[in-house]
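TA notes, week 10

Several of you asked for a full example with nothing omitted. So below is the full record: structure tokens for the whole chain, then the designed sequence directly under it. When grading your own attempts, check the secondary structure regions first.
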């Protein structure tokens, strides 16, 4: 997206939707610079939306990025379209907030009761979204949960949603810092440090167990020495694939370096991990 388009977007009105942020031009520049728009689905974000859907018991969970005239979904559970118009977007309202934007019943809310996403598919009634910010502090979009029935947040739900949004921010920051292992596609040590420390703090706060598994491939040096590094690379890639297919969708699988790997399993006891 060209700078001129960014500027025009910032100067325009909201066209019936949410008001534009005062820093809209800078916000869009930050969003575009990250290179996330219109990119393929990525496990690090899909894991979060699956987790959000399961924890909140809702049919729809999204990582939504608010572009000039659309909201585009970097990850989505329970929703077919990959984007919707910005003027229909609940997330365009949510990025104006510092905290959670909550709509208990969209049909009873004057701002949304005539919204096409409320009157038709996906028939939104409940919406809760927490802004996701870029490393420079600009709001990019939200991590949000949606239901077709009215509801309210209960107990620690608000904090849980903030925690998941913060995890999404860590993932964005990790991408920005190139914290992915190029050979295997897993998180590398630097990315693991950021994500795992947050998972540990979160699980401690909600009194959930965490298991950490470490893997060291025996005899790997001999593979490199006798068959060559190309074969060794294929061994590492095969092992990474095996880890991803073995563990849960919500677990964090990482390559620490060389032939060392680890898995962080949130909500898993030692017995769970051994099984």
């Amino acid at each position: 997206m060209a700078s001129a388009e960014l500027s025009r977007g910032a100067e325009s009105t909201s066209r019936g939707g949410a008001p534009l942020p005062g820093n809209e031009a800078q916000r869009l520049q930050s969003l575009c610079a990250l290179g996330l728009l219109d990119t393929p689905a990525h496990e690090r974000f899909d894991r979060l939306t699956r987790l959000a859907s399961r924890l909140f018991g809702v049919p729809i969970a999204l990582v939504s990025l608010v572009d000039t005239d659309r909201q585009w979904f970097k990850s989505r559970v329970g929703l077919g379209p990959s984007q919707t118009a910005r003027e229909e977007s609940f997330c365009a309202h949510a990025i104006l907030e510092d905290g959670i934007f909550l709509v208990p019943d969209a049909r009873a809310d004057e701002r949304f009761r005539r919204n096409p996403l409320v009157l038709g598919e996906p028939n939104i009634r409940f919406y809760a979204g927490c802004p996701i910010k870029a490393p420079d502090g600009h709001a990019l979009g939200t991590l949000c949960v949606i239901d077709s029935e009215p509801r309210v947040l209960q107990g620690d739900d608000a904090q849980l949603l903030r925690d998941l949004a913060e995890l999404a921010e860590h993932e964005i920051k990790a991408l920005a810092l190139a914290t992915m292992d190029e050979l295997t596609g897993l998180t590398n040590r630097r990315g693991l440090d950021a994500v795992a420390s947050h998972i540990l703090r979160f699980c401690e706060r909600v009194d959930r167990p965490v298991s950490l598994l470490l893997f060291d491939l025996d005899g790997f040096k001999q593979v490199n020495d006798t068959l060559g590094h190309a074969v060794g690379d294929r061994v590492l890639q095969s092992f990474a694939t095996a880890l991803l297919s073995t563990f849960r969708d919500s677990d964090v699988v990482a390559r620490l370096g060389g032939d060392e790997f680890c898995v962080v399993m949130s909500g898993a006891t030692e017995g769970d991990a051994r099984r």
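The longest helix spans residues 157-176. Use that as a sanity check on your answer.
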